[in-house]
Design a protein that fits this description.
single chain, 175 residues, Maf protein, 5 strands
Amino acid sequence: MPAKPAAARTGKPAPEYADLATRMAALHPKLRKKKLTVAAAESCTGGLLGAILSEHSGSSEYFRGGMEVYSDEAKTVLADVPPQLIHSHGAVSAVVAAALARSAREKLGAKIGLGITGIAGPTGATPGKPVGLVYIAVDCPKLQTVQKKQWTFDRAGNRLASVGVALDLLAKAIG
């Protein structure tokens, strides 16, 4: 379990792992009832989304699996993100997040794909892409969207908050 995240500069704390697990518990029966399946491709969250998606017994009915695609090479080799997308837009971009979600869905045969890419920090910032910049995507027949977030938490908080947004998008995809 990750360390307890620090509050953002705004004073609002990031969600904790237990909060995300509770939120997933509410989605669990809905996914099972609707016979929906989910897959993930995640970068800066390093498997945290997959851990939350598989937190509850019976999750194998809907969670097809996930890809930890931390490096650019992993994004291209494992998630089939075209190298020219990364070269043109950067690994931390809306188009790459969308490509990760689509690839997770297609490669793992899921009805819903989730993708996350960003800069968790405290290092890794580049010009125009500060620490805390994260793109979270969902891809399914009824919803394809990407959310851009600029978190001000510590590394743990940035990762947890990003997974929280992925759960929000999953809830929208479930309906």
